[in-house]
Amino acid sequence: MSKDTVTITDNATGRSIELPVLHGTAGPSAIDVRSLFKSLGYFTFDPGFMSTASCKSAITFIDGEQGILRYRGYPIEQLAEHSSYLEVCYLLLYGELPNTAEFDSFSSSIKRHALLHEAMRRFVSAFRHDAHPMAIMVGVVGALAAFYGDATNVHDPSVRELASHRLIAKMPTIAAWSYKHSIGEPFIYPNNSLGFAENFLHMMFSVPAEPFKPDPRIVKALDLILILHADHEQNASTSTVRLTGSSEASPFAAVSAGIGSLWGPSHGGANEAVIRMLEEIVESGKPVQHYIDRAKDKNDRYRLMGFGHRVYKNYDPRARIIRQACYEVLETLSDDHANKALFDTAMELERIALEDDYFKERKLYPNVDFYSGIILRAIGIPMNMFTVVFAMARVVGWLAHWNEMMSDPDARIARPRQLYVGKVERDYVGIDKRG
Ligand code: CMC
Fold this sequence. Notes:
This protein is mainly alpha-helical. The protein contains 18 helices and six strands. It has helices spanning 36-40, 76-82, 85-94, 100-112, 119-125, 133-147, 157-183, 196-205, 216-228, 236-245, 251-262, 270-284, 288-296, 317-332, 337-354, 357-361, 369-378, 386-406, and strands spanning 5-9, 16-22, 30-31, 60-63, 68-71, 74-75. The strands form two sheets. A three-stranded antiparallel sheet has the order 1-2-3. The radius of gyration is 24 Å and the shape is globular. Carboxymethyl coenzyme *A is lined by residues 232, 235, 266-268, 270, 295, 303-310, 362, 364, 367-369.
């Protein structure tokens, strides 16, 4: 057996094949099983993709054991400290940090595409006033495909670039309008003199009668949240966007599918679930230990939201950054007692859980969502908008992956196989003869 192959032997037939081992630039290598079915007639079985690399990617690197996250090679800690969300968007999309001219041109393109078609006002208004903003976002982003039919020419890189700019630019407008609709306030148009995060806050909180000037420290905290959520390699929603896009569907349809995937509480919906959990703990007056015990009880479906991660078996590096930011935001808003109580409860929960054998043995640590909801709540974003803000940030990651896949000559339609466990062939029986 050569060094870079793995031999698989079928003990039933004695036949062996050598499978190549693929090495990336960092992280575990992967066994290339593409010839397995042709050679031995077997599929691999891996529900939930526990051991499967679904693609090659040069965008984001995670080492879950060490708690490392890098975008295009840059550590998340450095980007969080020195960069901005828009610069990170450029980095994720184009692979390099921009020079001044590149950044100016990118940022003015994003500004120019922030407006929605006027027909979209009626479209958003037509939703029930109490519709969840994620439901509105799934619908409105999917509907953009009807406005930009040219985007279906997905093999043209310039078409993909334009669709990517449009989506990054329009997500904050869609997000803010879904909120304005739910509270019955007029939609606020984007203001091109404002930065990305500030413009979103403007569209969320301005009213025609009064301007809104957010505290720069709040704008910075929101920009940080956007940076930390911008990409996370092949998570459920990114894989959904890749899978949908692999059929050469419109990027607006693919991103809409990704938003749907993000919505669930095991993924992007966890930030909302964390706040509900912390509020319940604070309001119940019961000790934190009571909730830790429930999370450990196998007969109780209760889980500590914001704890655990498929990839991180160490402290999520994003959680560490956001925990510090949370502290700083709450210092800024010194009279915000409700959020301070949630933060204190979160810290106590974290301390008790990290000392508990159940959490230690399973390597369950706080993830990014454990603290992000506290910041969002402190800056006035309503709870049902938390996952919408996550989607607004993650859209660039989805698009970077979609672009990478569409420009990969080896890319094919994603079509997993299955282990069939249903009935074998049987004959149809007329209804009068069935027991
Ligand atoms: N509280 C209590 N026990 C847990 C938790 C938790 N939050 N998470 C996992 N476990 C236990 C689980 O019961 C299992 O125990 P056992 O081995 O005895 O059966 C073990 O840890 C492994 O869990 P798993 O469900 O097999 O792990 P997974 O990789 O399939 O799930 C997860 C990962 C994130 C879905 C899960 O940890 C979870 O449900 N966490 C809470 C929801 C959450 O915070 N989600 C946000 C993820 S980060 C943001 C994002 O990527 O969108």
